[in-house]
């Protein structure tokens, strides 16, 4: 049997029924990684020995028959390389952290491990999460498994590519302005950004702390909810963690119907900002939801230019502050050939950071400078308030919002190398949920007729209402796949 095209949900059943052992499963994924990852390059590190050990431990628990077997028990997973993994290198795809081995695991990773998950490796990304194509990695780029001449998206491009290529059944990513949702869309898989604070940021290497979130990437919606259930919930180690009880969602999806759900669709923004393939896929998604009894409502989202500007201003300002700790002394690889402390700072940072990270640090430092702070940073904070209020009003008209994830299909490697700002504007549809702290999921809803490349749609919900987001996504997936629960590509 080819386990590598199965979903977490399917594998979980096989493990529980003892039809397959965790070690068998882990070995088959490790084999697949060895065979195919040289062409995709989704992984920065493959943790083969630790994985085998964890698999053997999971098998011992399953064999012992003691207690309930968690749905993720014994199932392999990949982790984005900005989430700390105890004893496994965590580089953030940066030269400055290329030899960093954390002494502890991020809370989300620790929760997975606590449930018997098997970590097979760490995935490639844009350095420190800054980018949307995986081209800004100090370790080289990742290819889209559906077309190796194209980008897999980013910054969690390695995680999405690994799931799409069947190198793991699920992966964790991080999403600050779209980094789980957009690569999921580009690779034809499902990616979820929870509400801000829903999943602990403890051990997630900070990019922009008021926006950073951790979320799962899977082949189908129900598996995504299963991983979400395992990582969501209050963590006292993260001061911004939501204290409310986090409702488990996976068990509530089957059989739930969406009749009467009000779906807001920003028609005019879609019209002006997407290409024809994305438009077509979105309009068929709208039709699917309408056929299932949803009420479709034409809405206008807050100003897109303002939202994008606020996102890039706030995220760069926070990044410039967060990344000041990499000075070669407190954190980060130290330049050794220096005679003064200033030289250590200067050389370590100049050599350690790539061009995009430097651009953001410079921009963020400028925005926070005394002369510019009121004009830009504080204005961006005010814009954020307005956007949050805008969404509050919209959510009195509708229950969720259906929007594109990206304006176009996955583009060719190198397309934006000389135009960073043009790349930034591609984030137009994902930064909304980030700025407003809302849960949003990306799932495949169509394919381009000529290239067969996938198109993703995004469902955005009210803050803390992950359940409604998952319910709408599950209904849409059922309609798109015609009951076949796997939209992922069988490659
Ligand atoms: N593409 C966005 C950026 O470059 C988002 C990145 C992210 O979510 N980490 O900032």
Please explain how this structure is put together.
This protein is an alpha/beta fold and 491 residues long. It folds into 2 domains: 3-257 and 461-481, Amidase signature (AS) domain (Amidase signature (AS) enzymes, Alpha-Beta Complex), CATH 3.90.1300; 304-388, no CATH class. The chain has 16 helices and 11 strands. The chain has an 11-stranded mixed β-sheet with strand order 1-3-2-4-6-5-10-11-9-7-8, with helices on both faces. The site of glutamine (GLN) has 13 residues, from loops.
Question: Outline of this structure?
Answer:
The chain is an alpha/beta fold. 41% of the residues lie in helices and 12% in strands.
Topology overview:
Layout: H1 8-16, H2 22-40, E1 43-46, H3 48-64, E2 76-80, H4 107-114, E3 118-123, H5 157-164, E4 170-175, H6 181-187, E5 190-193, E6 213-218, H7 221-231, E7 262-265, H8 267-273, H9 276-291, E8 295-298, H10 304-322, H11 341-352, H12 355-368, H13 373-397, E9 400-404, H14 420-425, H15 431-436, E10 440-447, E11 454-461, H16 466-481
Helix pairs in contact: 2-3, 5-6, 10-12, 10-13
Bound molecules: glutamine (GLN).
The site of glutamine has 13 residues, from loops.
């Amino acid at each position: 049997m080819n386990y590598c095209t199965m979903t977490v949900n399917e594998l979980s059943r096989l493990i529980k029924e003892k039809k397959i052992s965790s070690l068998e499963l882990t070995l088959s994924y490790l084999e697949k990684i060895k065979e195919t990852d040289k062409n995709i390059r989704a992984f920065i590190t493959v943790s083969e020995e630790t994985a085998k050990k964890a698999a053997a431990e999971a098998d011992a628990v399953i064999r012992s028959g003691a207690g309930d077997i968690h749905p993720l028990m014994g199932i392999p997973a990949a982790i984005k390389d900005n989430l700390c993994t105890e004893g496994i290198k965590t580089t953030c795809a940066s030269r400055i952290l290329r030899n960093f081995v954390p002494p502890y695991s991020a809370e989300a990773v620790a929760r997975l491990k606590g449930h018997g998950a098997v970590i097979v490796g760490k995935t490639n990304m844009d350095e420190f999460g800054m980018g949307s194509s995986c081209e800004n990695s100090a370790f080289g780029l990742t290819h889209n498994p559906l077309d190796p001449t194209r980008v897999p998206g980013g910054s969690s491009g390695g995680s999405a590519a690994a799931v799409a290529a069947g190198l793991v059944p699920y992966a964790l990513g991080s999403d600050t302005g779209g980094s789980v949702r957009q690569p999921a869309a580009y690779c034809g898989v499902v990616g979820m950004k929870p509400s801000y604070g829903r999943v602990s940021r403890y051990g997630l290497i900070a990019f922009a702390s008021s926006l950073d979130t951790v979320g799962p990437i899977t082949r189908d919606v129900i598996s995504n909810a299963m991983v979400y259930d395992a990582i969501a919930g209050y963590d006292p180690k993260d001061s911004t963690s939501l204290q409310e009880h986090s409702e488990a969602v996976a068990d509530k999806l089957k059989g739930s119907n969406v009749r009467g759900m009000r779906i807001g669709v920003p028609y005019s923004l879609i019209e002006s900002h997407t290409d024809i393939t994305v438009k077509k896929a979105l309009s068929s998604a709208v039709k699917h939801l309408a056929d299932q009894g949803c009420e479709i409502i034409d809405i206008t989202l807050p100003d897109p230019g303002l939202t994008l500007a606020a996102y890039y201003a706030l995220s760069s300002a926070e990044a410039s502050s967060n990344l000041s700790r990499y000075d070669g002394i407190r954190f980060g690889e130290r330049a050794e050939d220096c005679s003064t402390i200033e030289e250590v700072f200067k050389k370590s940072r100049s050599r350690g950071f790539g061009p995009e990270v430097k651009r953001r640090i410079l921009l963020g430092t400028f925005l926070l400078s005394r002369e510019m702070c009121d004009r830009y940073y504080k204005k961006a904070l005010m814009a954020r308030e307005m956007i949050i209020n805008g969404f509050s009003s919209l959510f009195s008209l509708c229950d969720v919002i259906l929007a594109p994830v990206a304006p176009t299909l996955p583009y060719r490697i190198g397309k934006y190398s000389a135009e960073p700002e043009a790349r930034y504007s591609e984030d137009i549809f994902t930064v909304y949920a980030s700025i407003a702290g809302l849960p949003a999921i990306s799932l495949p809803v169509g394919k381009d007729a000529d290239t067969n490349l996938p198109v993703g749609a995004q469902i955005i919900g009210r803050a803390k209402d992950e359940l409604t987001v998952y319910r709408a996504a599950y209904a849409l997936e059922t309609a798109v796949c015609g009951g076949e629960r796997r939209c992922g590509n069988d490659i």
